[in-house]
Amino acid sequence: MNDFLQKLPQFAGHHLELSLLFAGLVIALIVTQIMVLMRKYTELTPAGLTQLINRDSPLLIDLSAIADFEKMHVPGAKHVAMSQFDPENKDLAKARELPVVVMDKDGRGSDGAAQRLIKAGFTRVYTLGGGVLAWQQAQLPVAKGKN
Fold first, then answer.
1. For 117, which of 5, 20, 98, 122 could close a Cys bridge (C-beta 3.0–4.6 Å)?
2. Is the pLDDT of residue 92 over 90?
3. Do residues 100 and 124 lie in contact, with contact meaning Cβ atoms separated by under 8 Å?
4. pLDDT tens for residues 1-48?
């Protein structure tokens, strides 16, 4: 280990591009982790969502495309098109104190919706990490159709 630490400055001097790339990746990783710690919503695993459903009866909002929603969704989820998602809606505003879980097909588009809910005053906001596909891959039941 001591030999490694002695040769590290020499390596960094000879391989400046690799050293800068490594430093950039480390900084990006640190920034990403800080952002995860500072966000005000929680990302759930499929098992975590199952526990939340059993414990608190959350409002489940699926932002997937309608065709994806009809093929497969978490039972009890309500479909809302992303273009029509409005946290200020009076019907949704009634659920401000309930836990709200936002999800989509693959988990990539729900972060923005979760942030909008937080901004609108919702206090218990969650996302489903990996989306409905993760739910299905965990071999949990899925519903089909519009309901």
1. 122
2. no
3. yes
4. 678 888 888 888 889 999 899 999 999 999 978 876 777 899 999 999
pTM of structure? 0.77
Question: In CATH, which of 1.10.1060.10, 3.40.250.10, 3.40.50.300, 3.40.50.620 is domain 41-137?
Answer: 3.40.250.10
DSSP string, the chain: -HHHHHHHHHHHHH-HHHHHHHHHHHHHHHHHHHHHHH-SSEEEPHHHHHHHHHHH-PEEEE-S-HHHHHH-B-TT-EE--GGG--TT-HHHHTTTTS-EEEE-SSSSSHHHHHHHHHHTT-SSEEEETTHHHHHHHTT---B-S--
Domain definitions of the chain by residue range: 2-37, 41-137
